[in-house]
Amino acid sequence: MKPTLTIEDLCTEAAKFAEIESLYDEPVLYGVTDGKAIGTYLEHKFTAYLAEKYSSQQGNSALGIDIPALEVDIKVTSIKQPQSSCPFRSATQKVFGLGYHLLVFVYDKYDDFENRTGRLNMQHTIFIDRSRTGDF
Length: 136
Hints:
The chain is α+β, with helices and mostly antiparallel strands. The chain has a single domain, classed as PvuII Endonuclease, Chain A. The chain is 29% helix and 23% strand. The protein contains three helices and three strands; from the N terminus they run H-H-E-H-E-E. It has a three-stranded mixed β-sheet with strand order 1-2-3. The longest helix is centred in the first third of the chain and has 19 residues. The radius of gyration is 15 Å and the shape is globular.
């Protein structure tokens, strides 16, 4: 029986995952410059990593929150061109927040032309509590 994932576990595992990912050469990422494709790749890889260790309700990145049991959405962005794929849906969200937590992975991608692989050198792994997602 796998343990249930907690916010504390999530933060610990995200840091471990980022360290591992920073060392991993991925042929699928070679030449990829589309931030959405890279984000989807990393979100799916991280949620699969969590599923190996913890029991948790799986989300769907296209339909909503990535880890619904913890009310956490995963965002992935490049340090060279940061962007948000999480627009506010209303003025209320902008002021009071999104209503869920964010786990943000910030990467610097580079390609190894000789080996034809891409690598995501993870720069930051940040957990943002739902109370901090608004402008106040």
